[in-house]
């Protein structure tokens, strides 16, 4: 997104400003901790200990981060095209349907290494379809994509409740979920990866989709900065007028970008459904689609920023669970506040500290201000 | 007849929070500030009113607290989108999350009831009011039940909400402030040229939004229910947004849109799993999704065309 201010060296733009935004977000979150009568410093210590203090902690942190990488990339791809995809939550939810259909259909037929690519295709296809409708409506009928994707989140939720209390539920069961998949539709765990680094663990939900998430991060980088399509997407996001003038088909780019975005969001379902719970449950997304917004904003829509941002939020998720053991007043919902504050400071208020930063830079080294502009990649 | 009366009575009760939130959004969006944070402001207002009412035992103090808290969140949104020219959608999303998280954490921290506030006694709530002559009218055929069962017997906030409809119409289309408000949403540069502050005008609009969402939240916590339950808005802020679009940003249309969505809700609750002639059993989830589906269809221009205020979502940059 273009800003009227941007004239800072790249390291300040991509490193310092997000860091300042993050620190402010945490300070405000600390105030909330104070308000319920606990010590913010003790909470922060517990958080870090819970997230990184043990092998199992690291495993859980990376397990949550996996989901956030997918949804963060999904939001980021749309951002590059100037589109705000709030529908990641719904796209991931219906993506779970794609995973479940593959797993329920083939879990006794194929081994996992055939089921895995099939489930990737299934989740990506349904996620992409769910994003395609709002995209088409935006491109051809001019309806606002933010509103339509919000509506599609609710429609997705209703649809999935309908399917899980009805057609997908085994006959003899009361719980709104599918049957448990057979072993051949379980993704391999990545415990060996953690043990390689010397951690000893019993079992964590970290699974193969973590690797897939990293592969997708590289793929998104290549797509956006190294392909013709990526160039068209960025042009469209930077200036729709220029894109039209250059002969880039507006409707086509919007629909394709949103389908890629929806596919990435849909793939998020692989992690919990095929990697951990081995069945499709109600509300398995648990807000990961929305966390993706914060992750993409903090990572400045670049995969190299999104992966650490996702790990940070994974840490908050896992550490937050740990805090709630020790401080019953603070539940995991603390992360929702932090998420909101990060979206506020890194997204809506991203320009708040910029004038001050510019003044500071200008007084220290006037020359660095001019140099930074040339290297800026279109964020 | 009896079921119809009950259904319409429920329609009124369910559409009031939508209506208050919808009118709230109307002021902001007419001034050119998109607000998808209605949900969050309503939720924070509901919590504030329930917490204050539980602490003081007064519904009015609850209402005041809700207005202050919702108003503060509205100012945050205003600060981000007017002063800092940030992305209004992003800011609205942030407000929603901050409200969702804070209400749960503070609710648990202060009241220790799993995110609920204590159940409130009648004195700390806005109770039902019987309109004059409601009892006497009851036996009059047709008009009697309409007056005494549907119109009478709601809380003060219900009448306030319906009073706000003509009042908003008057403000918007008959007052100087309203003319300027509409102008700033269509063409802020023209308003600026006329020597009127775009910033101050938009801030006022956003503050009105905050106050009205405070009313909506108070209605949820102190009139419809007896206290705060976590996530009690349950997407109503978004349905209100849908109603606003459905109503093409006009107050009277907004009332009918909210009544329609309220009726769908009441209908879905009443006829869960019932069989209908010709159609068979309609899944309750379809009924719940209907407002959202209708909005999507409307936005796509298949039922008329919803044209938002022209300058909506765009920060105003004064030319130098």
TrEMBL record, chain A:
Its main location: membrane. This is ABC transporter permease. Coiled coil: none annotated. Pfam families: BPD_transp_2. Keywords: Cell membrane, Membrane, Transmembrane, Transmembrane helix. InterPro entries: ABC_transp_permease. It comes from Aquibium pacificus. It is found in: Cell membrane. The lineage of its organism: Bacteria, Pseudomonadati, Pseudomonadota, Alphaproteobacteria, Hyphomicrobiales. CDD domains: TM_PBP1_transp_TpRbsC_like. The chain crosses the membrane at residues 15-36, 43-62, 68-86, 93-114, 120-137, 144-165, 206-224, 245-268, 280-299, 306-328, 334-353. It is a multi-pass membrane protein.
């Amino acid at each position: 997104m273009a800003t009227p201010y941007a004239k800072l060296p790249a390291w300040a733009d991509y490193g310092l400003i997000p860091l300042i935004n993050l620190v402010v977000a945490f300070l405000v979150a600390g105030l909330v901790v104070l308000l319920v009568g606990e010590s913010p410093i003790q909470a922060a210590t517990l958080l870090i200990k819970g997230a990184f203090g043990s092998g199992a902690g690291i495993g859980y942190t990376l397990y949550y981060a996996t989901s956030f990488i997918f949804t963060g990339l999904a939001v980021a791809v749309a951002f590059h095209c100037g589109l705000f995809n709030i529908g990641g939550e719904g796209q991931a939810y219906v993506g779970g349907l794609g995973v479940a259909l593959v797993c329920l259909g083939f879990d006794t037929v194929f081994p996992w290494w055939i089921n895995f690519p099939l489930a990737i295709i299934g989740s990506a296809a349904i996620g992409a379809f769910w994003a395609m409708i709002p995209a088409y409506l935006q491109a051809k009928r001019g309806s606002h994509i933010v509103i339509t994707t919000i509506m599609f989140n609710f429609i997705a939720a209703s649809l999935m409740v309908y399917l899980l209390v009805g057609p997908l539920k085994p006959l003899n069961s009361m719980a709104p979920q599918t049957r448990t998949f057979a072993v051949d539709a379980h993704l391999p765990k990545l415990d060996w990866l953690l043990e390689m680094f010397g951690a000893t663990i019993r079992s964590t939900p970290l699974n193969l989709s973590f690797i897939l998430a990293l592969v997708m991060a590289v793929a998104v980088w290549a797509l956006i900065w190294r392909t013709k399509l990526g160039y068209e997407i960025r042009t469209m996001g930077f200036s729709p007028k220029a894109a039209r003038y250059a002969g880039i088909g507006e409707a086509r780019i919007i629909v394709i970008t949103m389908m890629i975005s929806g596919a990435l969001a849909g793939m998020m379902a692989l992690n919990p459904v095929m990697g951990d719970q081995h069945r499709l449950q109600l509300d398995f997304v648990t807000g990961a689609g929305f966390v993706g917004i914060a992750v993409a904003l903090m990572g400045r829509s670049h995969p190299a920023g999104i992966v650490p941002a996702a790990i940070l939020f994974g840490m908050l998720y896992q550490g937050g669970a740990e805090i709630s053991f020790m401080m019953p007043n603070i539940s995991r919902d603390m992360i929702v506040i932090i998420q909101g504050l990060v979206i506020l400071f890194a997204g809506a208020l991203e320009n708040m500290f910029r004038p001050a930063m510019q003044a500071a830079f200008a007084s220290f080294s006037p020359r660095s201000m001019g140099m930074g502009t040339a290297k800026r990649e279109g964020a | 007849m009896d079921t119809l009366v009950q259904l319409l009575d429920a329609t009124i009760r369910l559409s009031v929070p939508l209506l208050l939130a919808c009118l709230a959004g109307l002021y902001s969006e007419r001034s050119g500030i998109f607000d998808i944070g209605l949900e969050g402001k309503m939720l924070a207002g509901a919590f504030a009113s329930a917490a204050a009412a539980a602490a003081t035992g007064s519904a009015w103090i609850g209402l005041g607290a809700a207005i202050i808290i919702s108003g503060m969140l509205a100012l945050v949104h205003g600060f981000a989108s007017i002063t800092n020219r940030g992305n209004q959608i992003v800011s609205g999303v942030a407000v929603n999350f901050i409200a969702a998280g804070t209400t749960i954490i503070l609710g648990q921290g202060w009241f220790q009831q799993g995110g609920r506030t204590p159940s409130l006694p009648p004195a700390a709530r806005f109770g039902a009011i019987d309109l004059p002559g409601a009892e006497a009218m009851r036996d009059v055929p047709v008009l009697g039940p309409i007056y005494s069962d549907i119109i009478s017997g709601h809380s003060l906030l219900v009448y306030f909400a319906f009073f706000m409809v003509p009042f908003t119409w008057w403000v918007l289309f008959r007052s100087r402030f309203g003319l300027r408000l509409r102008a700033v949403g269509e063409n802020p540069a023209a308003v600026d040229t006329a020597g009127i502050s775009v910033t101050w005008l938009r801030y006022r609009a956003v503050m009105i939004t905050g106050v009205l969402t405070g009313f909506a939240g108070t209605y949820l916590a102190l009139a419809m229910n007896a206290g705060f339950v976590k996530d009690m808005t349950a997407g109503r802020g978004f349905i209100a947004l849908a109603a606003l679009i459905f109503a093409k940003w006009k107050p009277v249309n907004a009332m009918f849109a909210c009544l329609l969505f309220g009726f769908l809700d009441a209908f879905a609750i009443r006829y869960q799993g019932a069989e209908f002639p010709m159609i068979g059993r309609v899944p309750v989830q379809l009924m719940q999704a209907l407002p959202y589906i209708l909005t999507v269809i409307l936005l796509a221009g298949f039922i008329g065309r919803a044209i938002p205020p022209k300058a909506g979502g765009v920060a105003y940059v004064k030319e130098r």
